[in-house]
Structure formats: structure tokens, C-alpha cells
Design a protein that fits this description.
alpha+beta; Beta-lactamase; Trypsin Inhibitor V, Chain A; seven-stranded mixed beta sheet; six-stranded antiparallel beta sheet; 31 strands
């Protein structure tokens, strides 16, 4: 055999032997990796790159106003942080990146500080420079560069600065998103809408807490795995975002009510401590505005507590309406029953009962209607005590029959429940009742009600006797579509008989037109208002004589009297005199009622904010000559109206389209026509052509809509 060939075969054998040894080594290593304890070690290594059940937060739903405007929404803010310490397993790469990052921040710290000072002017460049130097010294992960939360725009502006514009792996700068609840209208109705805890994001109070399960949604989950050199998130269960809720709040009315109430609280003669105003829609019970203002240590007023729902107060004279209603319903009195109030001071079972004008000689003899018109303590207490002295339980049963004292079960944590005491008797003796309890209870003492309960009672009077529960949420929405509605809930279909209701409605209208509630109305020039004034002294330390006297003055009522659309209560807690529900709470009620009844006449807020807009009011049909004269006197230009003198001429059938019923009947009868009207509203059609000759005695049919 050739020696060279023999040497080659030997070399191949040696190489083959090495290959076999390598194969055995690889197989052995694989077996050792697959079997304990090496398998446990590599499994632990793998776990560092795989993470199970990573939560995916759901977006919280919005709270919307009655017109769809966002009252509370979620908006991300950013915590601006820098990782001044570089992390990683490759020590050489880590050291190299750490040196680069340190040198870069030292070199550009002045530029970065100046740029951040422009973005966040509340902190100067020196402050940010010191902040960067502190971060370089401490060399830790997640060092917060800006102590507050930044907006998205501010975050993007910061990313344009030197070093901060680099990738997270290189420069270490990152913005951690923090979802925050934003209220575009500031503090308006903030205690009713509610809040979240800033640290945990959990619901704290208000509608946010009551409807938390709907708003918060359901979090999803994912897991992370390492694919080559990257970590990839795999979604196992997508999050279900929270649904939106449509509230009953009218933010424009809320603003009007808050400004009017705040101005009254700040008046020197009032100097109020707490102010409450609630506006409710009569038919539905929708709470259109709810204001809770408390004076802070700095003298300004803030929404600190939902007083309208949670504060239990002795209602004072607004409670007299309920007392008189019980006696009317039981047939104990009529609205013409007379009672002698003397000279303003009357001894009730050993204690003096006084009217507010006792130092002026009192009212003398009054009818039941006048008793409420002038809010006579003596009149109410004498009427109720004479009727129910031997059977006070019948009086209290009457209050509960009317719905006074019934818990409303409102969707708020800490909502106050009415406390209307029932008399208890054992044998011949009363256990929790005194001779003076009934007289003082009848005028609004010894009973505790939250203001919203008082309003609910008056709203029932306005609503034809039907008591409805105050409503704050009307619908649940998903992607703008209604998925559930919250209907109006009826508490009591009828609080009293129709006859009693008509009597009470008549008396409450006279309280404003003739009695102490005049300042809550408008003199009857625009529309009629009904309601009742209230003034109650607040006990201090269990006594009405201790310390400085504090009062709650109020007015509760509805409007317009003939066809009620809204009910409202205004309460003010103040120190010292003068204390008058009519003159101090009444004007706030008047401001609110004038705003609501003028809606559609005045410009909306968007048009009013545009200085270039020209207001051109709608002018209805009538005499062109008289209309032009009136518009000139009012300095209104650009108003459009229909000039049709031929159809308003004598002997011709007018064009009634667009007229109101009373105007149309007047014009028709003036020309000798008989009128038949169908429908309600304004004239939409007439069966005799406008401009044709009039045939006296002929009947014209006008269709209203």
C-alpha cells in the first residue's frame, strides 16, 4: 500500500474518533440539561424571560352631562423619569454605556435644564440643573426628573432636548403614563360627580363610587415571552373598557346656580358658612343642578361635601307646608279656618312660641292660608296641637303618608336618611314624647331632613301629588350607544287627595305673590312662582342658647305655578341676624328660575362668547309698522320678520301661521270670524286661505302644533 494513502486513512480514523467523542459529549450534555438538577436551573433561566398574567388596565368610562358633554373623563399624564443607571448582563457593554450616559448628561446638563425650564416655567433652570446633578450622583433607575405629572404635549417637548431625544436604552429618558380623571369644568358639581384616590385609582365618593362597577370596566391579561433578542407581549384576554354614564346635570345651569349662590353667600349681610342649591325637573325627578359650597379657611367657597344629600338639618318653616297638609287631608281644618296668633307671643305648654314679628305686635287672627303666607309659628303650632294633641301618632302617620320621612335610597355613600320621630306609648304614658314636642315639630324642629328630601316633597306637590325619586343617571352607553336606561322611579303615586293638593298649591302661590316669599318671584310679570320660606335656628351643643346664634335660611318651591316644570331649593347656613329665607335664599331661587324660563330667548354660551356674532331674535307675525317701531326702540338690528300687511288688513282673512292661540283668536274674532282650534302650540294650518275676503259668522279651523 502506498505510504501516503496509509497515512491519510490513519488521519481520517483519528478525525472520526474526535467527531464521535464530540457527538457523545453533545448528547451527554443534552441529557444532563433535560434531567434534574440541570433542567431546574434552565427552567429558572427561562422564567426570567417569560412573565405570566400581566394585567392590562381597562379604560374608565366617562361621566357625561345631560347634553352629552364630558363632565369627567380619563386623560393620561406622564411621570418624567431618567434611568441614570444602566442595566444589563454584559459587564463590558454596561460599563461602556454607563460612561457614555454619564458624560452626555454632564456635557448637556445646562441645555437640558434651560429647555425644561421653558417647558415647566414654575421651576427655574438652576433647579433642573441641580436635579440632574443629583441624579448623576445617585445613579438609580426611575429618577423623577420633574416632580409633577406632565401633559402629553409637555412630554413630547421634553423628548426634543439633547440626550432626552435618544432611545430609552441609550439615553434612559422615559415617560410613564398615569391615567388621571379630568374635570373640564373644574369644581362644578364635583362632590356629586365624585373623585378617585390618586394613589390607587379606586373610587372615593359620589357617582364615581356608586357606579364604579360600570365605569371601571374589566382588566385584561397577557404574558411576555422572549423571541430572539426581544420580549413580546401576547394578549390572553383583552380588557373590556368601562361604559359611559349619562347624568342629568345641566352644566350651564350648574354654573348659573353656583355663581348666584356664591354671590349671595359673600354679601356682608349674609356672610354664609354653607350654601346649597338643588334644581329638579318636576316630571322626571332629574337633578339638573346641585351646588354644595362651604367656606374655607381662606374665606373662599369650595365643594367640600355633598351637603345637599348628606346633611341632616331641622328644616324650619318649609316643614309647615307638610303639617298643614296633614290637617287638611284629615279634615281637621280648611284653608279658610281662622286661628288667633295674638300679639306674636303665645304660651305653649309652659314655653313661649314666638312669631318673627312679635316685637311689632304680631298678626292677630289669620286664616290657614295667611298662616303659611306669613309663616306664623303660632298659627301652625296651635292648629296642629289643637287637632292632634291627644293623638300625636295620627299626625306623624300623616307625615309618612305624604312621603315625609321616607328614605330616598340615593346612590351616594353617606347619604342622610330622614329622622321623623314616631311617638311611643306604654300604658297611659309617652316614652319619648313631651307636651311641647308636637307644637315644635309642626314648625320644623325636632325633625331632621337632608335638603334633597324637602325638595322631593315639594316636587311632588308640583307634580300633581306624584312623588318621584331624584334621578342622577339616565343611561349607560357603550361606544355612544345606549345599552341600558335608568327610568324615573315613583315613590308614591299620590301624597294626598286632589282637593288637598289644590288647596296647598293655591296657598304656596300666595306665599310668593302676597306673603313673605315675594323676593323669590318676579312680581308675576313673567311667570308665577310657588313655594315656602324657611328660617330655622341651629342648635349649638344641644341648645339654642349657647354661643353665637346660627341659622339655616331657605326657600323651596317650583315654577311656573300653573304648569310646573322645575322645582328648586336654596339653603344657606349663616351666623347671626338678619336671618330670612325670603330675602336671603329667595333671590337665588329667583335667579335660577329666570335663567331656566329664559332659555331659548337669550343666546347660547357659544354664540355669546363670539364677539363677531349678531343676535337677531325671532319676530312673530304681527303689524309690520309696530314691529319696526319696537325693534328701533330696542336697538335690535338685523331681525327678520314677515311683512304681510295685506293679510292683516281689515276685511281680509289673516295669515295665522306661526301665531299663538290667543293672538289668532283675537285677530279672527276682530274680523267677525268664529274659531275652532285643534291641538296645542302655534298655528300650523288654517282651512280658509289667507288674504281672502271675510264672511262674517263663518267658522275657521286652526290647527295648532
Amino acid at each position: 500500500m502506498d505510504p501516503d494513502k496509509k497515512n491519510s486513512i490513519g488521519r481520517y480514523r483519528i478525525l472520526f474518533g474526535f467527531m464521535c467523542l464530540a457527538a457523545v459529549y453533545v448528547l451527554g450534555t443534552a441529557l444532563r440539561t433535560m434531567l434534574p438538577p440541570k433542567s431546574e436551573y434552565w427552567a429558572s433561566v427561562n422564567k426570567r424571560f417569560i412573565k405570566e398574567n400581566v394585567p392590562i388596565p381597562a379604560s374608565r368610562g366617562n361621566l357625561l352631562g345631560c347634553d352629552g358633554q364630558v363632565l369627567v373623563g380619563t386623560l393620561p399624564k406622564y411621570r418624567l423619569c431618567v434611568d441614570f443607571r444602566v442595566g444589563g448582563r454584559d459587564s463590558v457593554a454596561v460599563d461602556s454605556m454607563q460612561r457614555w450616559r454619564d458624560d452626555a448628561y454632564k456635557l448637556y446638563k445646562d441645555s437640558i435644564a434651560l429647555g425644561l425650564a421653558r417647558i415647566f416655567p414654575e421651576y427655574g433652570a438652576n433647579w433642573f440643573r441641580n436635579r440632574i446633578e443629583k441624579g448623576l450622583r445617585e445613579r438609580r433607575f426611575g429618577f423623577q426628573l420633574y416632580p409633577k405629572l406632565a401633559s402629553y404635549i409637555q412630554y413630547k417637548q421634553a423628548q426634543e432636548l439633547p440626550v432626552l431625544r435618544e432611545s430609552v436604552l441609550k439615553g434612559g429618558f422615559h415617560g410613564d403614563p398615569i391615567p388621571l380623571r379630568i374635570k373640564p369644568y373644574g369644581s362644578l358639581a364635583s362632590r356629586t360627580l365624585g373623585e378617585l384616590y390618586t394613589d390607587s385609582g379606586r373610587a372615593k365618593c359620589g357617582l364615581e363610587l356608586s357606579f364604579d362597577s360600570i365605569l371601571r370596566g374589566t382588566p385584561g391579561s397577557s404574558h411576555r415571552i422572549k423571541v430572539r433578542d426581544a420580549r413580546v407581549s401576547i394578549i390572553d384576554r383583552p380588557p373590556l373598557d368601562g361604559h359611559d354614564l349619562k347624568t342629568t346635570i345641566d352644566i350651564n345651569l350648574q354654573d348659573v346656580a353656583e355663581r348666584s349662590l356664591k354671590n349671595k353667600l359673600m354679601e356682608e349681610s349674609v356672610n354664609g358658612e354653607v350654601g346649597i342649591a338643588i334644581v329638579m325637573e318636576v316630571k322626571t325627578g332629574d337633578v339638573k343642578a346641585i351646588v354644595n359650597l362651604t367656606r374655607g379657611a381662606d374665606g373662599n367657597y369650595y365643594e367640600m361635601k355633598n351637603n345637599a344629600v348628606s346633611d341632616l338639618m331641622e328644616p324650619g318653616s318649609t316643614f309647615k307646608t307638610a303639617s298643614i297638609m296633614v290637617a287638611l287631608e284629615d279634615g281637621k281644618i280648611t284653608k279658610d279656618t281662622r286661628v288667633d296668633t295674638g300679639k306674636g307671643v303665645f304660651k305653649m305648654h309652659g314655653s313661649n312660641m314666638k312669631d318673627h314679628n312679635w316685637n311689632k305686635g304680631g298678626y292677630g287672627e289669620l286664616t290657614v292660608s295667611q298662616v303659611l303666607e306669613f309663616s306664623s309659628n303660632i298659627g301652625v303650632s296651635r292648629l296642629i296641637d289643637d287637632a292632634y294633641h291627644d293623638h300625636p301618632e295620627a299626625y306623624v302617620d300623616g307625615l309618612y303618608r305624604e312621603g315625609v320621612g321616607i328614605p330616598l335610597n340615593l346612590p351616594f355613600a353617606g347619604a342622610g336618611e330622614p329622622k321623623v320621630r314616631r311617638p311611643e306609648k306604654k300604658g297611659k304614658y309617652w316614652l319619648n314624647w313631651s307636651k311641647t314636642a308636637l307644637p315644635w315639630m309642626s314648625i320644623g324642629y325636632e325633625t331632621m331632613l337632608p335638603p334633597i328630601s324637602t325638595l322631593t316633597f315639594y316636587n311632588a306637590i308640583a307634580n300633581g301629588g306624584c312623588m318621584v325619586k331624584p334621578r342622577f343617571i339616565t343611561a349607560e352607553l357603550c361606544d355612544g350607544q345606549v345599552v341600558r336606561e335608568f327610568p324615573t322611579e315613583v315613590i308614591k303615586p299620590s301624597i294626598c287627595s286632589k282637593h288637598t293638593l289644590y288647596d296647598i298649591q293655591d296657598i304656596l302661590e300666595k306665599v310668593v305673590s302676597q306673603g313673605l316669599g315675594k323676593k323669590a318671584g318676579n312680581g308675576g310679570k313673567l311667570f308665577k312662582v310657588s313655594g315656602k320660606t324657611g328660617t330655622a335656628q341651629i342648635a349649638s351643643g344641644g341648645s339654642y342658647r349657647n354661643g353665637v346664634h346660627r341659622y339655616m335660611v331657605s326657600f323651596c318651591g317650583y315654577f311656573p305655578s300653573e304648569a310646573p316644570r322645575y322645582s328648586c331649593i336654596v339653603c344657606i347656613v349663616k351666623r347671626g341676624t338678619p336671618a330670612s329665607g325670603g330675602s336671603q335664599a329667595g333671590p337665588v331661587f329667583r335667579d335660577i328660575s329666570l335663567y331656566l324660563m329664559s332659555k331659548g330667548v337669550y343666546r347660547n354660551t357659544e354664540e355669546a362668547a363670539d364677539s363677531n356674532s349678531v343676535y337677531t331674535p325671532e319676530v312673530l307675525k304681527g303689524s309690520a309698522e309696530k314691529t319696526e317701531t319696537l325693534l328701533k326702540q330696542m336697538n335690535l338690528r338685523g331681525a327678520q320678520f314677515e311683512n304681510a300687511p295685506d293679510t292683516l288688513a281689515k276685511g281680509r282673512v289673516p295669515n295665522f301661521i306661526g301665531m299663538g292661540a290667543s293672538d289668532a283668536v283675537y285677530e279672527a274674532q276682530k274680523r267677525g270670524l268664529k274659531v275652532r282650534i285643534t291641538g296645542v302650540g302655534r298655528v300650523m294650518a288654517q282651512d280658509i286661505t289667507a288674504g281672502s275676503e271675510v264672511s262674517k259668522g263663518k267658522t275657521i279651523t286652526l290647527t295648532l302644533k
